[in-house]
Amino acid sequence: MPARRPGARPQESPLQKSLAVCGLLIGLSGWGDAVAQVDLSTLDQRMPGPTTQVLVLGSVHLSDLPKDFKRESLAPVIDRLAAFKPEVITIEAISGEQCDLAARHPAIYGAQAMAPYCRKTDAAKAATGLDAPAAIAEAHKTLKNWPAAPTSAQRRRLAAVFMAANDKASALVQWLQLPQTERRSGDGLDDVLVASLEKAMLYNDESLQIGARLAARLGLQRVHATDDHTGDNVDIADEAAYGKAVQAAWETAAAPMGQVLEREAALAKSGDMLGLYRYVNRPDVLRVVVDGDFGSALRDTSPEHYGRLYVAGWETRNLRMVANIRAAFRERPGARVLSIVGRTHKPWFDDLLGQMQGVEIVEAAQVLK
After folding, report:
1. Span 332-359, mean pLDDT?
2. How many whole angstroms separate alpha carbon 270 and alpha carbon 264?
Protein backbone atom coordinates (compact mmCIF):
# COMPACT_ATOMS: atom_id res chain seq x y z
CA MET A 1 0.00 0.00 0.00
CA PRO A 2 1.48 3.37 -0.97
CA ALA A 3 2.29 5.73 1.88
CA ARG A 4 -0.11 8.63 2.53
CA ARG A 5 1.03 12.26 2.60
CA PRO A 6 1.01 13.76 6.09
CA GLY A 7 -2.48 15.16 6.72
CA ALA A 8 -4.02 13.48 3.68
CA ARG A 9 -7.47 11.89 4.11
CA PRO A 10 -7.69 8.10 3.80
CA GLN A 11 -9.38 6.84 0.64
CA GLU A 12 -13.12 6.35 1.13
CA SER A 13 -15.07 3.31 0.02
CA PRO A 14 -18.15 3.71 -2.25
CA LEU A 15 -20.38 3.00 0.79
CA GLN A 16 -18.66 5.71 2.83
CA LYS A 17 -19.09 8.21 -0.01
CA SER A 18 -22.79 7.34 -0.33
CA LEU A 19 -23.36 7.81 3.41
CA ALA A 20 -21.51 11.12 3.35
CA VAL A 21 -23.69 12.45 0.52
CA CYS A 22 -26.87 11.35 2.34
CA GLY A 23 -25.68 13.08 5.49
CA LEU A 24 -24.96 16.29 3.58
CA LEU A 25 -28.43 16.26 1.99
CA ILE A 26 -30.10 15.65 5.34
CA GLY A 27 -28.06 18.46 6.87
CA LEU A 28 -29.00 20.89 4.10
CA SER A 29 -32.65 19.90 4.42
CA GLY A 30 -32.56 20.52 8.16
CA TRP A 31 -30.81 23.86 7.61
CA GLY A 32 -33.58 24.97 5.25
CA ASP A 33 -36.26 24.01 7.75
CA ALA A 34 -34.43 25.88 10.49
CA VAL A 35 -34.26 29.07 8.43
CA ALA A 36 -37.93 28.82 7.52
CA GLN A 37 -38.87 28.44 11.19
CA VAL A 38 -37.14 31.58 12.45
CA ASP A 39 -39.95 33.77 13.77
CA LEU A 40 -38.98 37.43 13.87
CA SER A 41 -42.37 38.61 15.11
CA THR A 42 -41.36 38.19 18.76
CA LEU A 43 -37.80 39.47 18.47
CA ASP A 44 -38.64 42.85 19.98
CA GLN A 45 -40.76 41.58 22.88
CA ARG A 46 -38.17 42.45 25.52
CA MET A 47 -37.20 45.74 23.88
CA PRO A 48 -37.17 48.58 26.42
CA GLY A 49 -38.89 51.85 25.62
CA PRO A 50 -41.96 52.66 23.53
CA THR A 51 -42.58 51.20 20.09
CA THR A 52 -42.54 53.38 17.00
CA GLN A 53 -46.14 53.96 15.94
CA VAL A 54 -46.66 54.19 12.19
CA LEU A 55 -49.89 55.39 10.62
CA VAL A 56 -50.22 54.82 6.87
CA LEU A 57 -52.84 57.15 5.43
CA GLY A 58 -54.10 55.89 2.10
CA SER A 59 -54.94 58.97 0.05
CA VAL A 60 -56.78 59.78 -3.10
CA HIS A 61 -54.70 61.88 -5.45
CA LEU A 62 -56.09 65.37 -5.02
CA SER A 63 -54.85 66.33 -8.47
CA ASP A 64 -57.49 63.98 -9.90
CA LEU A 65 -60.36 65.82 -8.18
CA PRO A 66 -62.46 68.45 -9.99
CA LYS A 67 -60.95 71.91 -10.31
CA ASP A 68 -63.57 73.36 -7.99
CA PHE A 69 -62.36 71.12 -5.14
CA LYS A 70 -62.27 73.17 -1.94
CA ARG A 71 -59.05 72.67 0.00
CA GLU A 72 -60.69 73.79 3.24
CA SER A 73 -62.80 70.61 3.13
CA LEU A 74 -59.64 68.75 4.19
CA ALA A 75 -59.72 70.47 7.60
CA PRO A 76 -61.48 67.58 9.45
CA VAL A 77 -58.93 65.12 8.04
CA ILE A 78 -55.99 67.30 9.06
CA ASP A 79 -57.50 67.85 12.53
CA ARG A 80 -57.60 64.11 13.20
CA LEU A 81 -54.09 63.58 11.88
CA ALA A 82 -52.87 66.44 14.07
CA ALA A 83 -54.40 64.70 17.10
CA PHE A 84 -52.18 61.69 16.29
CA LYS A 85 -49.23 64.09 16.76
CA PRO A 86 -46.78 62.65 14.23
CA GLU A 87 -43.14 63.60 14.71
CA VAL A 88 -42.10 62.34 11.27
CA ILE A 89 -44.20 62.80 8.12
CA THR A 90 -43.39 61.05 4.86
CA ILE A 91 -44.96 61.81 1.48
CA GLU A 92 -45.24 60.17 -1.91
CA ALA A 93 -42.69 62.31 -3.73
CA ILE A 94 -39.32 61.69 -5.32
CA SER A 95 -36.41 62.99 -3.27
CA GLY A 96 -33.86 65.42 -4.63
CA GLU A 97 -31.23 62.70 -4.28
CA GLN A 98 -33.15 60.34 -6.56
CA CYS A 99 -33.89 63.06 -9.09
CA ASP A 100 -30.18 63.83 -9.23
CA LEU A 101 -29.36 60.12 -9.54
CA ALA A 102 -31.78 59.62 -12.42
CA ALA A 103 -30.46 62.70 -14.23
CA ARG A 104 -26.91 61.31 -14.02
CA HIS A 105 -27.95 57.88 -15.35
CA PRO A 106 -30.32 58.48 -18.29
CA ALA A 107 -29.28 55.20 -19.91
CA ILE A 108 -30.67 53.31 -16.91
CA TYR A 109 -33.75 55.36 -16.02
CA GLY A 110 -34.54 57.03 -19.34
CA ALA A 111 -33.91 60.66 -20.19
CA GLN A 112 -37.53 61.64 -19.51
CA ALA A 113 -38.65 58.87 -17.15
CA MET A 114 -38.41 61.02 -14.01
CA ALA A 115 -39.51 64.26 -15.68
CA PRO A 116 -43.08 64.09 -14.32
CA TYR A 117 -41.74 63.73 -10.77
CA CYS A 118 -38.60 65.89 -10.75
CA ARG A 119 -38.86 69.64 -11.22
CA LYS A 120 -36.01 71.61 -12.70
CA THR A 121 -34.03 73.50 -10.06
CA ASP A 122 -32.43 76.07 -12.38
CA ALA A 123 -34.30 79.00 -10.82
CA ALA A 124 -33.37 77.95 -7.28
CA LYS A 125 -29.75 77.43 -8.31
CA ALA A 126 -29.66 80.92 -9.81
CA ALA A 127 -31.07 82.38 -6.59
CA THR A 128 -28.93 80.44 -4.12
CA GLY A 129 -25.83 79.46 -6.10
CA LEU A 130 -26.40 75.82 -5.05
CA ASP A 131 -26.85 72.83 -7.30
CA ALA A 132 -28.93 69.93 -5.95
CA PRO A 133 -26.12 67.97 -4.20
CA ALA A 134 -24.78 71.12 -2.54
CA ALA A 135 -28.27 72.17 -1.46
CA ILE A 136 -29.02 68.74 -0.02
CA ALA A 137 -25.79 68.88 1.98
CA GLU A 138 -26.59 72.37 3.28
CA ALA A 139 -30.11 71.38 4.28
CA HIS A 140 -28.78 68.44 6.31
CA LYS A 141 -26.17 70.62 8.00
CA THR A 142 -28.69 73.39 8.75
CA LEU A 143 -31.23 71.03 10.30
CA LYS A 144 -28.60 69.49 12.58
CA ASN A 145 -27.98 72.92 14.08
CA TRP A 146 -31.53 74.26 13.84
CA PRO A 147 -32.43 76.57 16.74
CA ALA A 148 -35.53 76.16 18.90
CA ALA A 149 -36.74 79.60 17.85
CA PRO A 150 -35.54 80.27 14.29
CA THR A 151 -35.69 83.76 12.85
CA SER A 152 -37.68 84.60 9.76
CA ALA A 153 -34.42 85.05 7.87
CA GLN A 154 -33.36 81.52 8.81
CA ARG A 155 -36.67 80.11 7.63
CA ARG A 156 -36.45 81.97 4.31
CA ARG A 157 -32.92 80.71 3.79
CA LEU A 158 -33.87 77.11 4.55
CA ALA A 159 -36.89 77.37 2.25
CA ALA A 160 -34.59 78.55 -0.55
CA VAL A 161 -32.15 75.71 0.13
CA PHE A 162 -34.97 73.15 0.06
CA MET A 163 -36.09 74.57 -3.30
CA ALA A 164 -32.58 74.11 -4.67
CA ALA A 165 -32.55 70.57 -3.23
CA ASN A 166 -35.70 69.77 -5.25
CA ASP A 167 -37.79 69.49 -2.08
CA LYS A 168 -40.62 71.97 -2.59
CA ALA A 169 -42.84 70.33 0.02
CA SER A 170 -40.28 70.95 2.78
CA ALA A 171 -39.74 74.48 1.48
CA LEU A 172 -43.48 75.01 1.88
CA VAL A 173 -43.28 73.74 5.48
CA GLN A 174 -40.88 76.60 6.22
CA TRP A 175 -42.87 79.14 4.21
CA LEU A 176 -46.11 78.35 6.04
CA GLN A 177 -44.46 78.91 9.42
CA LEU A 178 -43.48 82.44 8.51
CA PRO A 179 -45.75 85.28 9.61
CA GLN A 180 -47.68 86.64 6.64
CA THR A 181 -45.62 89.85 6.67
CA GLU A 182 -42.39 87.81 6.46
CA ARG A 183 -43.41 85.82 3.39
CA ARG A 184 -41.28 87.82 1.03
CA SER A 185 -38.06 87.62 -0.95
CA GLY A 186 -34.67 87.74 0.73
CA ASP A 187 -32.10 85.39 2.30
CA GLY A 188 -31.88 83.29 -0.86
CA LEU A 189 -35.49 83.59 -1.93
CA ASP A 190 -35.97 85.81 -4.97
CA ASP A 191 -39.27 86.88 -6.50
CA VAL A 192 -39.38 83.80 -8.75
CA LEU A 193 -39.08 81.38 -5.84
CA VAL A 194 -41.57 83.35 -3.76
CA ALA A 195 -44.09 83.14 -6.60
CA SER A 196 -43.46 79.39 -6.85
CA LEU A 197 -44.12 78.89 -3.13
CA GLU A 198 -47.26 80.98 -3.24
CA LYS A 199 -48.47 78.90 -6.17
CA ALA A 200 -47.63 75.67 -4.30
CA MET A 201 -50.04 76.72 -1.55
CA LEU A 202 -52.84 76.31 -4.11
CA TYR A 203 -51.80 72.99 -5.71
CA ASN A 204 -54.24 70.12 -5.36
CA ASP A 205 -51.61 67.73 -4.05
CA GLU A 206 -51.94 65.68 -0.86
CA SER A 207 -48.20 65.99 -0.17
CA LEU A 208 -48.65 69.76 0.06
CA GLN A 209 -52.23 70.25 1.22
CA ILE A 210 -52.06 67.56 3.92
CA GLY A 211 -48.38 66.71 4.45
CA ALA A 212 -46.75 70.14 4.34
CA ARG A 213 -49.63 71.96 6.02
CA LEU A 214 -49.80 69.43 8.85
CA ALA A 215 -46.02 69.55 9.35
CA ALA A 216 -46.14 73.35 9.59
CA ARG A 217 -49.06 73.21 12.02
CA LEU A 218 -47.15 70.82 14.29
CA GLY A 219 -43.94 72.84 14.14
CA LEU A 220 -41.97 70.25 12.20
CA GLN A 221 -39.17 71.48 9.96
CA ARG A 222 -39.65 69.24 6.95
CA VAL A 223 -41.43 66.31 5.36
CA HIS A 224 -39.60 63.29 3.93
CA ALA A 225 -39.96 62.40 0.25
CA THR A 226 -39.96 58.60 0.09
CA ASP A 227 -41.31 57.65 -3.34
CA ASP A 228 -39.03 55.56 -5.56
CA HIS A 229 -39.13 54.85 -9.27
CA THR A 230 -35.71 53.24 -9.64
CA GLY A 231 -37.11 49.72 -9.43
CA ASP A 232 -40.30 49.82 -11.48
CA ASN A 233 -38.70 50.65 -14.84
CA VAL A 234 -39.38 47.10 -16.08
CA ASP A 235 -37.58 46.28 -19.32
CA ILE A 236 -40.36 45.38 -21.77
CA ALA A 237 -39.56 44.42 -25.35
CA ASP A 238 -43.09 45.01 -26.69
CA GLU A 239 -44.62 47.82 -24.64
CA ALA A 240 -47.79 47.94 -26.74
CA ALA A 241 -48.50 44.24 -26.11
CA TYR A 242 -47.66 44.71 -22.43
CA GLY A 243 -50.09 47.59 -22.06
CA LYS A 244 -52.81 45.73 -23.93
CA ALA A 245 -52.44 42.61 -21.74
CA VAL A 246 -52.53 44.52 -18.45
CA GLN A 247 -55.49 46.61 -19.60
CA ALA A 248 -57.37 43.45 -20.58
CA ALA A 249 -56.67 41.99 -17.15
CA TRP A 250 -58.03 45.12 -15.46
CA GLU A 251 -61.22 44.93 -17.49
CA THR A 252 -62.05 41.57 -15.90
CA ALA A 253 -62.43 43.38 -12.57
CA ALA A 254 -64.13 46.49 -13.93
CA ALA A 255 -67.47 45.93 -12.19
CA PRO A 256 -66.36 45.87 -8.52
CA MET A 257 -63.76 48.55 -9.16
CA GLY A 258 -66.41 50.71 -10.82
CA GLN A 259 -68.59 50.55 -7.70
CA VAL A 260 -65.71 51.73 -5.51
CA LEU A 261 -64.82 54.58 -7.87
CA GLU A 262 -68.45 55.71 -8.07
CA ARG A 263 -68.68 55.88 -4.28
CA GLU A 264 -65.42 57.82 -4.07
CA ALA A 265 -66.61 60.30 -6.71
CA ALA A 266 -69.87 60.85 -4.84
CA LEU A 267 -68.09 61.55 -1.55
CA ALA A 268 -65.64 63.91 -3.23
CA LYS A 269 -68.45 65.76 -5.01
CA SER A 270 -70.32 66.22 -1.74
CA GLY A 271 -67.25 67.78 -0.14
CA ASP A 272 -67.15 65.12 2.59
CA MET A 273 -63.39 64.58 2.53
CA LEU A 274 -63.36 62.98 5.96
CA GLY A 275 -65.95 60.49 4.76
CA LEU A 276 -63.89 59.91 1.62
CA TYR A 277 -60.69 59.22 3.57
CA ARG A 278 -62.55 56.91 5.93
CA TYR A 279 -63.90 55.02 2.92
CA VAL A 280 -60.66 54.60 0.97
CA ASN A 281 -58.84 53.35 4.09
CA ARG A 282 -61.40 50.64 4.87
CA PRO A 283 -59.87 47.11 4.57
CA ASP A 284 -62.84 45.77 2.58
CA VAL A 285 -62.54 48.61 0.08
CA LEU A 286 -58.78 48.18 -0.19
CA ARG A 287 -59.22 44.46 -0.87
CA VAL A 288 -61.45 45.25 -3.85
CA VAL A 289 -58.98 47.83 -5.17
CA VAL A 290 -55.92 45.61 -4.77
CA ASP A 291 -57.60 42.61 -6.38
CA GLY A 292 -58.97 44.73 -9.21
CA ASP A 293 -55.52 46.14 -10.00
CA PHE A 294 -52.89 43.59 -9.03
CA GLY A 295 -54.92 40.43 -8.49
CA SER A 296 -56.34 40.74 -11.99
CA ALA A 297 -52.84 41.35 -13.39
CA LEU A 298 -51.56 38.19 -11.73
CA ARG A 299 -54.37 36.27 -13.46
CA ASP A 300 -53.18 37.52 -16.88
CA THR A 301 -52.70 34.56 -19.24
CA SER A 302 -50.29 36.11 -21.74
CA PRO A 303 -47.35 33.80 -22.58
CA GLU A 304 -44.94 36.59 -21.61
CA HIS A 305 -46.52 36.86 -18.12
CA TYR A 306 -46.97 40.60 -18.60
CA GLY A 307 -49.20 40.87 -15.57
CA ARG A 308 -46.56 39.36 -13.33
CA LEU A 309 -43.97 41.78 -14.70
CA TYR A 310 -46.30 44.65 -13.82
CA VAL A 311 -46.72 43.37 -10.26
CA ALA A 312 -42.98 42.76 -9.93
CA GLY A 313 -42.28 46.40 -10.73
CA TRP A 314 -44.98 47.52 -8.30
CA GLU A 315 -43.64 45.38 -5.47
CA THR A 316 -40.07 46.51 -6.08
CA ARG A 317 -41.25 50.10 -5.85
CA ASN A 318 -43.08 49.44 -2.60
CA LEU A 319 -40.09 47.67 -1.06
CA ARG A 320 -37.85 50.62 -1.83
CA MET A 321 -40.41 53.14 -0.64
CA VAL A 322 -40.79 51.30 2.66
CA ALA A 323 -37.00 51.24 3.03
CA ASN A 324 -37.00 55.02 2.54
CA ILE A 325 -39.71 55.40 5.18
CA ARG A 326 -37.75 53.21 7.60
CA ALA A 327 -34.70 55.39 7.02
CA ALA A 328 -36.77 58.51 7.77
CA PHE A 329 -37.36 57.36 11.35
CA ARG A 330 -34.19 55.26 11.69
CA GLU A 331 -32.71 57.61 14.29
CA ARG A 332 -36.08 58.21 16.00
CA PRO A 333 -36.96 55.06 18.00
CA GLY A 334 -40.33 55.45 19.63
CA ALA A 335 -41.45 58.25 17.31
CA ARG A 336 -44.93 58.67 15.88
CA VAL A 337 -44.78 58.45 12.09
CA LEU A 338 -47.36 59.41 9.48
CA SER A 339 -46.91 58.15 5.92
CA ILE A 340 -49.19 59.79 3.34
CA VAL A 341 -49.37 57.72 0.17
CA GLY A 342 -51.71 56.75 -2.65
CA ARG A 343 -54.27 54.38 -1.18
CA THR A 344 -53.22 51.40 -3.33
CA HIS A 345 -49.83 51.36 -1.59
CA LYS A 346 -51.36 51.10 1.87
CA PRO A 347 -51.77 47.27 2.12
CA TRP A 348 -48.12 46.77 1.13
CA PHE A 349 -46.93 49.50 3.49
CA ASP A 350 -48.92 48.13 6.43
CA ASP A 351 -47.63 44.63 5.80
CA LEU A 352 -43.97 45.51 5.23
CA LEU A 353 -43.65 48.19 7.91
CA GLY A 354 -45.43 45.88 10.35
CA GLN A 355 -42.54 43.43 9.99
CA MET A 356 -40.01 46.00 11.21
CA GLN A 357 -38.62 45.56 14.70
CA GLY A 358 -40.00 47.93 17.32
CA VAL A 359 -42.76 49.14 14.98
CA GLU A 360 -46.49 49.10 15.62
CA ILE A 361 -48.99 49.83 12.83
CA VAL A 362 -51.76 52.24 13.83
CA GLU A 363 -55.16 51.65 12.25
CA ALA A 364 -56.16 54.57 10.04
CA ALA A 365 -59.81 53.93 10.90
CA GLN A 366 -59.07 54.58 14.58
CA VAL A 367 -57.43 57.92 13.83
CA LEU A 368 -60.08 59.06 11.35
CA LYS A 369 -63.13 58.01 13.37
Report:
1. 98
2. 10
